[in-house]
Structure formats: C-alpha cells, structure tokens
Amino acid sequence: MPLLSLIIFVPWVGALLLAALPRIGDGAARVLTLIASLSTLALGLVALASFHPAAPGFQFVEQHDWIRSLNVHYHLGLDGMSLLLVLLTGIVSPAALLASWKQARSPRYFGLLFLALQGAALGVFLALDFFHWFIFWELSLVPAFFLIKLWGGPGAARAAYQFFIYTLAGSAFMLLGFAAIFAATGTLDFTQLARLAADGLLVEKLAAVSGFWPQAVFLGVLLGLAVKVPLFPFHTWLPPAYAEAPVGVSMFLTGVMSKMGVYGFLRILWPLFPAHLHAASGWLLCLALGGVVFGAFAAMRQTDLKRMVAYSSVNHLSYCLLALFAVSYSTGRIGFTVPASIAAFAGTLLQMFNHGLSAAALFLCVGILESRSGGRRGLGDFGGVRTAAPVFAGLCGITMFSSLGLPGLNGFVGEFLIFRGVFGLAPCTATIATLGLLATALFLLTFWQRVFHGPRAGAASREFRDVAGIELVALVPLVALMFLFGVLPHLLTNLFNPLVTSWVSHINPVVTTAQLPLP
Amino acid sequence: MSPDYLELLHALMPEAALVIGALVVLGFDLVVAKRDTLEERMNSSVTIGALSIVAALWHTVRAGAFGPAFGGVLNFDHLAVAARGGVLVLALLTLLLSAGTAHARHGAEYVAVILFATVGFTLMAAAQQLLLAFLALELASLSLYVLAGFDKSRPASAEAGLKYFLFGGMAAAFLLFGFSLIYGLTGSIELPQIAAQLAHQGMSPLLVVALVMVLVAFGFKASAAPFHLWAPDVYEGAPVSSAALIASASKLAGFTLFTRLLWPGFGIVAGIAPTAHVWAGWVPVVLLLSGSSLFIGNLGALAQTNVRRLLAYSAIAHAGALLLGVVVAGRAGPGPLFYYAATYGLATVGAFGVIGVVAKAGACQKITDLAGLHRRSPLLAGCLMIFILSLAGVPPLAGFFGKFAVFAAALQLGGLASPVGWLVFLAIAFSAVALYYYLVILKQALVTAPAADASRIAVPAPAAITLAAAALMLLLFGIFPSLLLGMF
Amino acid sequence: MNALPCTIYISFTGALLALVAGIRSAATARVVALLTALTSFGVTLMAAMDFVPGPGLQTLINHPWIPQLGIRYHLAADGISMTLIVLTGIAAVAGILFSWNIEERAGEFFAFFLTLIGGVYGVFLSADAFTLFVFYEIAIVPKYFLIANWGSTNREYGAMKLVLYSFAGSALVLAGLLWAYAAGGAHSFGIGDLAAAARHFSPALQTGMFALVFLGFAVLAGLFPFHTWAPTGHVAAPTAASMLLAGVVMKLGAYGCLRVAMPLFPLGLAFWQPAIAGLAIVGILYAGLVALVQDDFKFVIGYSSVSHMGFVLLGLAAANAQAVSGAVLQMFSHGVIAGLLFAVVGRMVYERTHTRQLEDLRKMPLHRLMPFAAATFVLAGLASMGMPGFSGFPAELTILIGTWKTAPMWALAAAVGVPVAAAFTLRVIQVSFFGSTEAKAVPATAVHPLPPITLAEKTGALLLLGATLLVGLKPDLLFDWINPALQSPLFQAMFKGGTP
C-alpha cells in the first residue's frame, strides 16, 4: 500500500470531492473536510505503528520513474523527522478546522482550500525529489494566499499579497539554485545529492563553472528557506499574514507551514552544503539570535494579541535555527561535542513539534477571545476574563505556560535541549538568547495578567461565554498533548533519536551512540 | 538585307489581327451599330476588340519563339513572345474592364485606340532596331496620349492628356537624339551591329551623352524618379482604363524594349560589374534612378489621400524595383524582370478595374471613397484585397515572388560588395513601408463602415469575371511562378 | 504522420468554406470552422501517435517547386515541429470555441482565422526556408483584418502597428535569407543546404546574416525593445486573435529563430549570444515591471506574454540542448497559458462586464458572479507565474538549468523575473476577481447577474487547462519529442558554436 502517497493525496482527494460537489450543504462540506483532514492523523498513526526508529534511511519508500529528461523520480520517504511533522500536521489540521467550524462564509471553498494546503504541506514533508518537493512547496502558497485573503481581516489583501510575493521571491532563488545543481550533477534527488555532498562532489561540480557559484547556489537555497521559516530579517511578511488570517488558518500557518522552512534547512541545506553552512554559520547565528531576541521584544511591544503571538512564533522558530547553526558553527571548532550536538538537534525537532502545538493553541485562544469581543483583540480590550470564563482561562493559561517553557509542559523539553546544546557549542550565543526567554516570559505574562486578571473590563464586562462545544473539542486535545509530551517526551524523542545520532555521526565519524541527556 | 514580306506577315500576324480588329471596330460602329444606344455600341466594340486581341494572342502563342525575323529588325526570342503575350493579356483585361464604364460617348474610337496602342506595345516587345523601336514606341505613346485625354467632359482628363503629351514628347525627343548619336557613333541602327561596334570602340564622351539621352526617355517611360512627375496627375486625371493601360501594358512593353536596348545593345558599356569595378556605364545611372524611385515612390505614397495618386506613387516605387530587374537581366536573364512587370501589370489593372467599377457608382478618387466596400460589394473588396496585397508583395500572391526573384538575382551580382546589394536591402526595407499605405487602402475597403449614402454596387458580369480572372491569375502565378519563369 | 501536410490544406479549404458558409449564417460558418479545426487537430494527433522521435527532420513531402531558383516544396517534421503543431491544433480549436459569439461577418472572421492557422501549420512544417517564409507571411496578414475588424480598444492602430512590425521583421528575414542564398551560390533554399553553404561563409558574413534573420524573427517573438507591438496588438485584438497571437504567432518568431537563424549561422549566434540574452533578460524584467502597473486587464496579460517570451529567447540564446529544449517547452506552455488568460479576460470578463479597467472590475464581486471564470483565471495565473505542477514550471526550470550551463549570471538575472511575474499575476487576480472582498459593501445581489459562461467557453477553457496540467505533470510527453530532435547534426553543430 502506498502509504505515503495516501497521506499526501487523501486531503487532495477530499478537496477534489468538494470541488466536484457544488451543491453540497454547508454542514456536509464541513464534515467532509474534517474527515479528509483527520485522515492524516489516522494514516500517520498507521505509519507510526510500523515505523522502526532504529532503521537507517527512509522507510515506506516509494520510487517511480517520472520525468526522464530531468531525471526526476517520484520519490517519497519517511524518517523520524518526517513522521514527527506528519503527526503534527495530523493533530493541528483538524484542530484548526474545528476552530474555524463556525466560519460563516462558504465552508465548501474554505474546506477545499484548506485540504489543498494540508496536502501540500504533507507533500513537502515526504517528498525526496526536488521536483515534486518544490511543487508542494509552491502550491502550499496558493491556498494559503486565498485563505488569508478571502477569509481574513481588513488588511488581509495586502498581507496575503506580501506573504505570497516574499515567499515566492525566496523560492525563485532556491529554484535557480537547484537549476544550477541539476546543471552540475544531473539529479534532483535529495538522497543522491546528500550522498554527493557527503563525498564533496557537489561543491566540486558546482565550482566547475567558477569558484564563486557554489556560494551563490548556497545563498539562493538559503534565501528561499530563510524567508519561509522566517529567519530574521526576512520575517516582515509574517506578523501581518498571521494576524490577518482567520483563526484556523493562523493555526495551520504557525503550526505546520512555519515548519516547512525549518524542515528544509534540516533536509536540504544542511546535508547539501555543510561546508558553506559552516562558513556562514557565524552570520547566521547572529541572525537567528536576532530573531530570538528581536522577536521576543517585538512581541512585547504589541498591543494586538494576534500580532503578539505571531512575533512569538518568530522567536520560537529562531530557536530551531539557532540550534542548527550552532552545531554547524562549532563543527571542527573546540566547543564541538557530540552530546551537545545531539541535544541541539533533538531540541530542534522537539521544538518544531511543540511550537506547532502550543502556538496553534495560542492562536486558537486568541481566536476565541476575538469571537467574544466582536473582532477586537487588543491587549486593552479585555480584562478579568478569568472570572467570566474560568475554564477558558485555565486552558489558555496552560497553553501560555507551555509556550514560555514551563517545566512539566511540552515547551520546556525542546527549549531545554536546545539551550543545553547551544550552551555547549556556542556559549555566548546561548547567553544572549536567554534574553529572548526572558522577554517571552514577560510578554506572555503581561498577556495573561492584562486579559485574564483584574476587574472585568472590555469585552469581558458584558456577557462572556466560556469555552464550550466545538471550541472545547479543538482546544482540549491540544492542551492534553502538551501535558502528555511534557511528561513523556520519550514518546517523541524515541522516534528520531537514532536519526539525530546518525546525523551527528556523519559530522564526526568517531561518535559513539550517546544517550540523550533528558531532564 | 533582303526583306521577305511573307515572313514579315507571318511574324506580324498578331499586329495584323489587332489592326484589322481596330478597323472592324470603327467600321462596325459606323455602319451597323449606329442606331444602338451608347452602351450597346460600347459593348459591341469591346467584344470585337477583345476577339481581335484573343486572335492576336492565339497567333503569338502558336508562332512561339522563332528568332530574328525580317532581317533582324525584329527578334522573336522568348522574351518577345512572353512580353507580347503579356501585353496582350493586359490589354485584353483593360479592354474588358472598360466595358460599361464611363466615357462611352466615343466607345468605338476608344477601343480602336487601345488596339492601336497594343500594336505599339507588341512591336516594342520584339523590336531589335532603333528605328522600329522608336516607331513602335511613338505609336504606343501617341495612342496613350489620346487615351489619357479621352474623357473630354473632365478638365482633369484633358490636363492629364496634355501633361502626358508634353512630357512624352520631350522624352521622345531625347530618345531620338540619343538614337541619332548612337547611329552616328556606330553607323548602324541594328542592335547586334551596334553591340559589335561598341565592343570595338569602348566608352566615349559622345556615347555617354547618347546613353543619358536614352535613359532619360526610359526613365520617363518607366515613370522612374526624377522623371515621374507626370505620373500622379495622369493616373489621377486619365480615364480609369487608360490609366490602367498606362500603368500595366505600357510599362511591360517599355521595360522589355529598354532591356533589349540596354543589354543586347549596350551591354558592353553597362559599366558596373561586380568583378570589374568600372563605374562608367549606364548601370550606375539606372541604379540611381532605381534608388531615387524607391525613395520618392514609397515616401510620396505615404502622404497621399487620393487613391489613384497613391497607385501612381506605388507605380514609381515599383519602377524602382523593376529597374533593379533591368540591371540583373544581364546576368540572370529577363525572367525575373518579365515576371515582375507582368504580375505588377496584372495587379495594377485589377486595382484600376475595381476603382473603375466603384467610380461608376459614385466618385472614386479619395481613398475614403472606398470605405465599406466589403458591404457594398464583397466581390470587389475581395478582389481589391488580392490586387493590393500583391502590389504590397505578400505571398502567396505573384507580387511577392516578383520582388523575390528580382532581389535574389540582384544579390547574386556580388552580395553587399556591390551597390546593387545595398539597393536590394533598401528595396526590402521599403517594402515594409509600402505595406502601410497599401493597408490604408485595404482598411477603407475591408474595415471601415460604408458612408451613410453609399449603396450596394452592382458589378457588371464582364468586369466581375475579368477581376476574378486577374485575381486568380495573381494567385496562380504566385503559387506556381514556374509557369512564367519557365518560359525563358 | 504523412498526413500532416493535410493540416495546411484542410485549414485553407476550411477558410474558403467558412467564407462561403458565412453568406448563409454565422452559425454555419462557425460550425464549419470548428469542424475544420477539429479535423486538422485530429490529423495532428493521429500523426503524433505514429511519430517516431529521432534526430533530424523527417520528410513528409519534397518536390521541386520553382526549379529555376532551386526552391523545393519541402515539408518535414521533427519533435520540435510536432510540439508546436499540437499547440497550433489546440489553440485553433480553443480559439474558435472562444469566438463562438461572433455574429458580425462571421464567415470572413473564420476565413481569416483559418488562413492564419493554415499559415502557422505551414511554417512549423517547412524544411525549406522559402516555403517557411511564404507561410510565415501568410500568417501575418490576416492578423491585420482580424484585429482591425473585430477588435476593441484602439483596434486600427493596434492592428497596423502589429502588422507593420511583423512585416518589417519579415523584411529583415527576407534580406538575410536572400543574402545567404546568393552568397551560397544560389542553389537551394533548403535549410540543410543553406546551412551547408553557410559553413563556408566568413564569420563576419555569418554575423551579419544572423543579425538580420534572427532579429527579423525575434521581432515577432517579442524581443525587447521590438516588443511594443505586442501589448497594443493584444489589447486591440478580439479574444480569439489575441489567443492566437500569444498562443502561436509569437511562437512563429521564436521558431524561426530556432529553425532558421540559429542553425544556419552558428558563428553569428556565437557572436550575438550575449546581446540576445541581455535583451531577453531586460525583456523579462522590464515587461514584468510594466505589467505590474497597468490599469487595463489585457495590457497586463499582453506584457506578461512579452515577459514569458523573454524566457524563450533566453533559452534560445543559451544555445545548449537543455536550454533550447526548455525554450521549446516554454513555447508550448506559454501558448496554452496565454491563450487561456486572454480567453478569460477578453471573452469571459470583457464581453460580460464591458470593461477591462482594473479599477472598475475591483468594484464587482466577480468571483461570486463568475466562479468558473475566477477559478480558471486563478489556475491560468498560477500556471503563468510558473507554479510547479503546470507546464510553465518544467519549462522555466529547464531553461534556467540550461542557461546556467552557459552563463550562470544570465540565469541569476532571469530568476528575478519569476517573483516579478508572480507579483503582477497575483495583483490582477486580487484586483480583478477578488477586489470586492475588501469593500464588502457591494452585495452580490446589487450587481446585475452576468450571462452565464457558455458550454463552448467551458470546453475551451478545460481543453487548455488540461493541456497545461498534463504537460506540467508529464513533461516527458513533449521532451521525448524535443530532445531527440536536438540531437540532429545541424543543432549539434549549432550548440558547438559552428564547429561540426
């Protein structure tokens, strides 16, 4: 059974069904969308059941000839990292759909676009040949664009346009980079390219034209990925896009789409250009650090809750890159140690997953607030929500603490591992990055205090419904998972532990299997 | 030289047919058709005239190319046969188109004069002796002067006739002077002897004067700049059929005559050759005429609002290209030139024919008078499109291949190393310019809506058939140029 | 396969029949036209079935035409011609479907239309430069009448400009070809023969001839700065004519460059290569930026065509097998996509709303009034901006790969064009179809319902969409034709810069 193809294409089939049924009722359209969306989780669990974490390489591989003239094969494969992200998608997407359940305007089109987006994101996580990887990568922009534009807030048109053009501009250079890679090597397959890169042939072949071009190609690919993540200072599209998007879409964007960039860094840039990444890692570390610190401080200055959460995403995602760059930076330097590197990578992967959960949940909370206040979501528009809606306050509080990394909740483990790794590899950077931690705590607590505490004010001064029904169905599983993975991070780390170990072992062949230093 | 009059009669059967036809036309009109209406008299005249032309054509074709006749005064080579056939066809078309058009008051005389002019043309096509050449030329010219001024009801026609006569007379004087000088220099009026003498003598100042004189006359006949000044006025003022004849058959005959004079006669003193850089000779002068005609014709045409004047300037421009054809005839033979001149004549006759039919239903002087022709008469619009596009040189119409053949031959004279090559490039560039003014005509005919008072045009059957035949011939010769080129 | 020349004859005969049928009624004329286009498309597809790709042209018919000048009526096809012939078939059928509403002088319209199509088929099948030129010119002139008669905004100006540019271009081609023919001893106009003769020309001679022929053809391909006919022409043209213009006529130019100019004068190509690439890149960027600020919907698409053809020219200029194969694929792709865009803008939108001003369209909730048109335009727009999954993507990718092999800097400059294309396409998508979502004040009911999209339009749109998707997902369908064709000795010599 082509499991991976199913994972990708079931949502698309759902989208096609919706497209082919113009007279379908609103309710039926919602249900159909949800079912198609849940398929990812179901199939992801099937994959999980027969997944062997210790087996090297990719599993469930599907490989077929596709385009001879470009030497393109339809090549899908799953490793620990992909599986993690597929599961994340499977969790966040239904939650996002439930969050938008009350979406009044044309649920059929909404579902159609959403499923298209979900399928594209899954494709990115599973494709192993640049050709269709790029298809999924680019196609994900289109439904996202329309979802933001058509269902978004007042500034949605501009935000969506900016989002699309920024990302596409970055992708264009990545495309050019891969054109160059193909011109030099004649293949677009990630695994083959990684092998070539490991042997040092990739750069050699690229340099055949002129010594300057490997750098240029590296920069092109870097640019494409950096815009997507986003890496400071390419993040300017993100806050408006996240803020203007409808709540479900914001959840998906931050929960899943932002991971596509990080995934690209780990799957493509680092394996293909280890030396160049190493050479650039000093600068990149600074940028990632900028993202961590600046993102947090910018979030602190926001009065719009959604923008605040959006900036916190910039901050959280920068941790992932920080860890990767730190490993790359320290390679071959004195600070390099295997355990620290493993910790950093493991932290990165965990952080991806955790951020997906908690940021999505945070957006959901903001969305709930917004729905109660008639569209207002300023920091000053609320007050004393805790007394008005205690259940909601509790759930939202857990989410916030997860996001700021309270031990016992999932966010802590990832950030801890990252800091554990980065402290070992690049101590100064780690020290500065703690500023970001501090600021994160500050703005989340401000959020908590201004909105939930104090006398009932703003929207909460009138009748304020507590969470119920579908909102609860969407939010509770997310919160439950925060607890679960906060207490039992092994459930996740076991999936990618061998993978991360082998990554690090490829950096330095004399590595011994090190046990992860877990808290 | 022992004249063999039987042979002469045999050789000149076509001319005889034409002359007899003309006489019959006059006699019939005088005796039999006296009481008929003007239109009937015109129709009967045209019918008889057409029959005589067909007879002449039949004789021409049947006799074929049999070489020099009458002691070399005439030379019935392939060119002569083709040119005679060409002028006869063109005259026939002109004649048929004149049926039922205006100025029918003296229909029989008109037809007879056309036939006399045609005799002049056919003789020009075969003349190989200066005297006969001059006589033939004058016979044709005098007839044309009459034809140009035939419409006595219009001052413009009289003006055209007078202008044409004055310019023509001047040119004839030049030509005669030039011929006499040549005779003085070489002691002969027979082209072969002249050629032999010139080969012996080489260039001399007197010969230069003679050549210039001849070329001036040629320039006039070909309406090449700077001797083109008569053309716009004559085309505009003359009756439509006369203008058609002046533009088509007369040109074909003229080019045939002068090509024969210049190459077999004065080929030795052609001057420029791609190999030998001799500049003294008549070719540089012809090239100058060609270049200036291309310039003045094409640029002048851009400014015209009168459709006939536009066609006149287009004729000047085409003369420029035809002169190139004369230059290449020395090496590539007269094939391209003949093809060009014949198909150009066809297209021009057709265009004038359409104008004539339109003019009968109202004025047709301004380009805007053609507005909405596609509604007033789809047939005329369709035919006009073919004629104009052929003039513009758009394949697969014959006009394109004419240019193509001439240019291809001209470039073989030495590529861009010789000025001919550059002239070809100039001509090609101007063909793009030319498309503009041709499209201006077609825009009126095929795009613009008709004026409010414009009615449908009833096309007389002979005119319709003639136009359709001309259009089909253009298409046929365009797709199968070998039909004409293969004659040489 | 051997029936391919019939496409030409069928089209010309169909033109005549449509003209006659038009006297009876417009409906008869369009049925005749559609049947004609379908028949020749069918012949094309049948031929495509038994087409065996291989290096070099496969002769279909070859006999003397004008023996006096060594001109032969020589028709032949290779993978490149096959690709473009299929494109022509698609464009013809779609064009007729999208002119289903022509009532005025329908007979003449379809006669001109089919004449153009016949000429285009002829160009793509010619293996003799003279034959090619004749068909090329046959394809040019009907454009004037199509646009001037049935066009819209400024139609007479647009038509005249377009035809004069094309004709000026073809005059250059004629000059160059005649020059080469004469210099080569005036034996033959066969492309192979001319190329063989040109091998002995001095580099200076080749440089000059190449400049004439290439430039002449490239005018029609929209090479900057000779592209200005394209936007005005496209805007003025009726829908079907702009579909054909962008769809196949601009390809004639590019095809001429590839089939005639480049293999004949490889040394000239080597000399002019940087200049062409430079102009192509400027064209990509300039046209893209200009498209970004247009107010007229059709102008945007018109300039986008110029921008896309810039990629084709860049691919040609790069002159290696990869880039050229990409360029040919881009020709196909752009033909289909531009046709679709023009169909939506010109037929679906303009003829219903009677405006093309983006400001006016912004006020109409078009995505609700015309969901089909909106969806089609979005898909076509995505295809046009080179989204993967559509045919533009493998084409542009291959061009970039090939260009990189020749000169990485060119590829880098051209890649900037990709986001620019996305920017202007996205802008018109936003403003035209989804503009009213910002000003939610206009309820759908307040706007007069527009006539529904007809079956003919839907069929045409699906045909074009299907083509771009099919080729986008399976570019091998065409690459398998194109690549072997580029293995021919003529092209190989060209890629090697003239050294056989």
Strand arrangement within the widest β-sheet of chain C reads: 1-2
Runs of chain C with pLDDT <50, length 5+?
none
By oligomeric state, this entry counts as heterotrimer
> What general outline of chain C do the C-alpha atoms trace?
globular
Helix content of chain C: over 70%
Major beta sheet of chain A, specifics? Answer: 2 strands, antiparallel
Distance between the termini of chain C: 30 Å
| Alpha-beta classification of chain C | mainly alpha
Name the beta content range of chain A. Answer: under 5%
Radius of gyration of chain A: 22 Å
Order of strands, main sheet of chain A, comes to 1-2
Molecular structure report:
The complex is a heterotrimer of chains A (about 525), B (about 500) and C (about 500). Chain A is mainly alpha-helical and about 525 residues long. Chain A has helices at about 5-20, 25-50, 80-100, 105-125, 130-140, 140-150, 155-185, 190-200, 200-205, 215-230, 240-245, 245-270, 275-300, 305-330, 340-375, 385-390, 390-405, 410-425, 425-450, 470-485, 490-505, and strands spanning about 60-65, 70-80, 380-385, 455-460. In chain A, the strands form 2 sheets. Chain A has a two-stranded antiparallel ribbon. A two-stranded antiparallel ribbon of chain A has the order 3-4. Chain A is globular, with a radius of gyration of 22 Å. Chain B is mainly α and about 500 residues long. Chain B has a two-stranded antiparallel ribbon. The longest helix of chain B has about 30 residues, at about 155-185. In chain C, about 75% of the residues lie in helices and about 5% in strands. By secondary structure, chain C is mainly alpha-helical. The interface of A and C includes residues 149, 150, 173, 178 and 209 of A.
Offer a few descriptive terms.
heterotrimer, A: 519 residues, mainly alpha, two-stranded antiparallel sheet, two-stranded antiparallel ribbon, 21 helices, 4 strands, 74% helix, 4% strand, disordered C terminus, B: 488 residues, globular
Secondary structure layout:
The complex is a heterotrimer of chains A (519), B (488) and C (500).
Chain A: H1 3-20, H2 26-49, E1 59-67, E2 72-78, H3 80-99, H4 107-126, H5 130-139, H6 141-151, H7 156-185, H8 190-198, H9 201-206, H10 213-228, H11 238-244, H12 247-272, H13 274-301, H14 305-330, H15 338-373, E3 382-383, H16 385-388, H17 390-404, H18 410-425, H19 427-452, E4 457-458, H20 469-487, H21 490-507
Helix pairs in contact in A: 1-2, 1-4, 2-3, 2-4, 3-4, 3-12, 3-15, 3-20, 3-21, 4-5, 4-6, 4-12, 6-7, 7-10, 7-11, 8-12, 10-12, 11-12, 11-14, 12-14, 12-15, 13-14, 13-19, 14-15, 14-18, 14-19, 15-17, 15-18, 15-20, 15-21, 17-19, 17-20, 18-19, 18-20
Chain B: H1 5-11, H2 13-31, H3 38-63, E1 67-69, E2 74-76, H4 78-98, H5 107-126, H6 130-148, H7 155-186, H8 191-201, H9 205-222, H10 230-237, H11 240-247, H12 249-265, H13 282-302, H14 307-332, H15 335-360, H16 373-376, H17 378-392, H18 398-411, H19 419-446, H20 461-479, H21 482-485
Helix pairs in contact in B: 2-3, 2-5, 3-4, 3-5, 4-5, 4-11, 4-12, 4-15, 4-20, 5-6, 5-12, 6-7, 6-12, 7-9, 7-10, 9-13, 10-11, 10-14, 11-15, 12-14, 12-15, 13-14, 13-19, 14-15, 14-18, 14-19, 15-17, 15-18, 15-20, 17-19, 17-20, 18-20
Chain C: H1 5-24, H2 26-49, E1 58-66, E2 71-77, H3 79-98, H4 106-125, H5 129-150, H6 155-183, H7 191-198, H8 203-221, H9 229-236, H10 239-264, H11 266-292, H12 297-318, H13 321-353, H14 358-362, H15 366-369, H16 371-384, H17 392-406, H18 408-434, H19 455-473, H20 476-485, H21 489-495
Antiparallel strand pairs in C: 1-2
